[in-house]
Amino acid sequence: MSKPILYSSWSSSCSSRVRIALALKKIDYEYHAVNLRTDEEQKDFALNNPAKKVPILKINGLTLTESMSIIEYLDEVYPNPPLLPKDPEARAHARAIAFHISSNIQPLQNLAICRKLEEIQKGYGIQWCHDVICRGFDALEQLLKLYSGRFCVGDRITIADLVLPSIVYNATEKYNVDMGPYPIISRIAAELGGIPEFEAAHPSRQPDAPKN
């Protein structure tokens, strides 16, 4: 069986989640860097995903899209280590936190929105993304007060932890968000950052990341 292929971009939050999942599942894969800013790349890429978005994972004869769907597929087909808790209540909490980040925060601060708003007024896009993350983090911090242990939900890594590092990266590296009001988010992000599989998936460690 051929090696899985991940179509990814170093700076993509959605790609980052899948890279972490693949690393945790010990799945060796081929990394195919995608630059969606070029017309030719977009034309070729649309053959695999009409939405022209990363990530795409080619695995087991399938072409999978949408990061959260990919992660749940991997968890069902490669069950160790599990990314969804067996307990229904904990599983619901893990999914709720994951989707709060992936649906309520990340799409509203992505590069396309930032650029479009910057076209309207210089500085507006950056401020919008900053404010979106802060509002999202205000709620996330409260959720983590209720459900977190060492990680987002209890003391085991779940799907919620896979989506946290990339949004914290965007907050601190792109939009200058003050993390002082978010001690739980900061603590868990630091804890995850020291885990080898999360380190390997960091944007700076990807082959297409800028070298300077």
UniProtKB/TrEMBL annotation:
<dbReference type="InterPro" id="IPR040079">
    <property type="entry name" value="Glutathione_S-Trfase"/>
</dbReference>
<comment type="pathway">
    <text>Amino-acid degradation; L-phenylalanine degradation; acetoacetate and fumarate from L-phenylalanine: step 5/6.</text>
</comment>
<feature type="domain" description="GST N-terminal">
    <location>
        <begin position="2"/>
        <end position="82"/>
    </location>
</feature>
<protein>
    <recommendedName>
        <fullName>maleylacetoacetate isomerase</fullName>
        <ecNumber>5.2.1.2</ecNumber>
    </recommendedName>
</protein>
<dbReference type="InterPro" id="IPR036282">
    <property type="entry name" value="Glutathione-S-Trfase_C_sf"/>
</dbReference>
<dbReference type="GO" id="GO:0004364">
    <property type="term" value="F:glutathione transferase activity"/>
</dbReference>
<dbReference type="InterPro" id="IPR010987">
    <property type="entry name" value="Glutathione-S-Trfase_C-like"/>
</dbReference>
<dbReference type="InterPro" id="IPR004045">
    <property type="entry name" value="Glutathione_S-Trfase_N"/>
</dbReference>
<keyword id="KW-0828">Tyrosine catabolism</keyword>
<dbReference type="InterPro" id="IPR005955">
    <property type="entry name" value="GST_Zeta"/>
</dbReference>
<dbReference type="GO" id="GO:0006559">
    <property type="term" value="P:L-phenylalanine catabolic process"/>
</dbReference>
<keyword id="KW-0585">Phenylalanine catabolism</keyword>
<dbReference type="GO" id="GO:0006749">
    <property type="term" value="P:glutathione metabolic process"/>
</dbReference>
<dbReference type="Pfam" id="PF13417">
    <property type="entry name" value="GST_N_3"/>
</dbReference>
<dbReference type="GO" id="GO:0005739">
    <property type="term" value="C:mitochondrion"/>
</dbReference>
<dbReference type="GO" id="GO:0006572">
    <property type="term" value="P:L-tyrosine catabolic process"/>
</dbReference>
<comment type="similarity">
    <text>Belongs to the GST superfamily. Zeta family.</text>
</comment>
<dbReference type="InterPro" id="IPR036249">
    <property type="entry name" value="Thioredoxin-like_sf"/>
</dbReference>
<dbReference type="GO" id="GO:0016034">
    <property type="term" value="F:maleylacetoacetate isomerase activity"/>
</dbReference>
<dbReference type="InterPro" id="IPR034330">
    <property type="entry name" value="GST_Zeta_C"/>
</dbReference>
<feature type="domain" description="GST C-terminal">
    <location>
        <begin position="87"/>
        <end position="211"/>
    </location>
</feature>
